[in-house]
């Protein structure tokens, strides 16, 4: 008997939770694809369908699916309370968010049934790509240094991420081991954990924690921006991860949206420590990092230190807040010139918080010694988050007052107290800046 989980489009966290617990399930967002899957699938493989749910739509959907496969158990998860009252047949379980204890227990029962089906499906799939005891379920992405898969650990019965590096030379082998050792030495909730490292005749594989929410780059595609609260939380999460890395003597070296993953609870996690450490230049023979996120000093002597990570975080937050990079260009030379010569554009149009504007400008200072410490950065982000909470709880009449009244007397040389207390950071010059 097949089990189909239909999740309301307004419950993305529930969808991520189901994807985590059902690694062998097929996931789709279209009814046509779901019906084709039920018709063509030779096994009772679980199916997860993300769909906009109303009582009428759900009834029609269930009727169409049962016409294709009569022996079908359906679990509906929606925020509309009418869903629960509309269905009473024993083969349909309707749950409404937020789930009560009885609903959670019922959902867990169905997940156990679906997981048994999942294991039989994994055994029936052939041929499968295996790395040691791990099974690759689907490809998540590929690049010049290898391919990443969503995988399954049959012994511990959990999903994992498998990063396969093609063994082209000794340097690639050393880089895989380097990344695994560096990442596994950091114990922090906002750093992707490395669980294992496997060597085969043709490749090397890192086994890592699997995060179902995808990376930040997908969220920022096509100039999209994050809400202010998410930007502040992004800064706190990644700054905390970098602080833990620096305490271990590791510099990340490649801060960018593609290396920030989002879990089902909305937390941001830092990934890819392949460029961390002091010996990376010898492995690559060139500077590390991604153009557009590189600080000016890396273009001269290829040096990358803790202040360079602060610069990369500043660029990341600026892009998340405004939807664009602070230093633009269509080629490496143009990006280099912009990073060296251009003044950081103001972000006050995207965030009226004067502290945030000063913080980002200071983080992207041309001189590494003038960038704030991570402790100072975290202090400003926390105070900005508290200010945002206060703004949201302030009555509407008070919110109508001009923003300038809150920053009166803050001249060009003034900086937020939290930033000055942790690091002496001169205000960034607005006319010209010189590289130290």
List keywords for this structure.
436 residues; alpha/beta; five-stranded parallel β-sheet; 16 helices; 13 strands; globular; disordered C terminus
Structure description:
With 436 residues, this protein is an alpha/beta fold. The protein contains 16 helices and 13 strands. Strands 6-7-8-9-11-10 form a 6-stranded antiparallel sheet, covered by helices on one side. The protein has a 5-stranded parallel sheet with strand order 2-3-1-4-5, sandwiched between helices. Helix 2 links the parallel strand 2 and strand 3. Helix 8 packs antiparallel against helix 14 and helix 13 packs antiparallel against helix 14.
Proportion of β residues? 15-25%
Q: Helical amount among residues, as a percent range?
A: 40-55%
Number of helices: 16
For the sheet with most strands, the description reads:
6 strands, antiparallel
Order of helices and strands: EHEHEHEHEHEEEEHEEHHEEHHHHHHHH
Widest β-sheet, arrangement of strands? 6-7-8-9-11-10
Summed up:
The protein has 436 residues and is an alpha/beta fold. It is built from 16 helices and 13 strands.
List the helices and strands and how they pair.
Layout: E1 2-8, H1 12-21, E2 26-28, H2 31-40, E3 47-51, H3 55-68, E4 72-78, H4 82-86, E5 92-96, H5 101-124, E6 129-131, E7 134-143, E8 146-153, E9 158-166, H6 170-184, E10 194-199, E11 203-209, H7 216-220, H8 228-247, E12 260-262, E13 268-270, H9 280-284, H10 298-301, H11 306-322, H12 332-341, H13 354-363, H14 374-393, H15 396-399, H16 417-422
Parallel strand pairs: 1-3, 1-4, 2-3, 4-5
Antiparallel strand pairs: 6-7, 7-8, 8-9, 9-11, 10-11, 12-13
Helix pairs in contact: 2-3, 8-11, 8-14, 11-13, 13-14
